[in-house]
Amino acid sequence: MFKVKVYVTLRESVLDPQGKAVTHSLHSLNYPEVSDVRIGKYMELTIEKSERDLDEVINEICSKLLANTVIEDYRYEVEECVPQ
Amino acid sequence: MKFAVIVFPGSNCDVDMYHAIKDELGEQVEYVWHDTESLDEFDGILLPGGFSYGDYLRTGAIARFSKVMQAVVKAAEAGKPILGVCNGFQILLEAGLLPGAMRRNESLSFICKPVDLKVVNDQTMFSAAYAQGETISIPVAHGEGNYYCDEETLAKLKENNQIVFTYQDNPNGSLEDIAGIINENGNVLGMMPHPERAVDELLGGADGLKLFQSIVRSWREANVVKA
Questions:
Q1: Hey, is the C-beta of B173 within 8 angstroms of any chain A C-beta?
Q2: What class of enzyme is it (chain A) (predicted)?
Q3: Residue numbers of B annotated as active site
């Protein structure tokens, strides 16, 4: 069994209105060193071992549903875990 | 002409759409639940606004995989008119029936007000009853209507005259003031403003009615054999 951590963020080329608002807010809190904030989504998937290649399955899931690749990028980390 | 209003869990403009077709346009219309497999009996498909599946993950992302969407794709391929308004537009984008994607409004606020649109292409089956360049007032009501597409897609939209409506005073940050686009084949239109909320002067305006009249007129021209 695997625990897969998926991170979805807006593409670099796409303006992130939420991130921009948070950046401004941090500046008003006197953190001028923060030059940019990008807001994204974090998802945890539990995936059972199967005959299919795990990376292939995750990439399919991400590009079909979890991320909209027109405006978003995704990356993921895999941890193997022992079922309780 | 017989219309289907597709109803997803969380749709909330389905009744307005039904009212516009039945009472204002005087055509046949039925509600169709999202798990319906066939739309063969319908001549036109309407995807209403709302918050399908609570906008979970992304607007339209879950609805796009509901059973009825396969039938919508089939109807699109068959050349039937398909109109997606607001959340309906977002679903069409997620389904890949129209190019691009929606971002949060630039202001991060939900915007609900009448806006002025410019008809930039009156040569479509959805806009033929308008005049080229005409200004119409249609209400918007959305939090994610900030249209985006890459430069290549934008060039293609322009080249093929696929931009049908633009905002006169951009309310949400949409690229090139885009309010509504059509697919290359000219039978799938997505728009953020709600024409179904502007079909009667009692509601504050009737500028949306011509959009529905355009659909019926073009369908009649193509399908009714002249005696």
A1: yes
A2: ligase
A3: 86, 194, 196
> In angstroms, rounded to a whole number, what is the distance separating the alpha carbons of residues B50 and A10?
24
The interface predicted TM-score of the complex, written ipTM, equals 0.84
Report residue B215 as tokens.
């659909």
Its domain, for residue B202, covers 2-225
**CB proximity list for A28: less than 8 A, separation 6 or greater:** none
Domains, chain A, in order of start with CATH, read 2-80 (3.30.1280.10)
Query: CA B81 to CA B226: how far, in whole Å?
Result: 21
Cβ–Cβ under 8 Å, residues B95 and B72: yes
**What's the CATH code of the domain at B75?**
3.40.50.880
pLDDT tens string B155-181? 999 999 999 999 999 999 999 999 999
Nearest to B89 by CA among B188, B196, B209, B207: B188
CB B182 within 8 A of CB B162: yes
| A68, A69, A73: best to mutate for the B interface, most B CBs within 10 A | A68
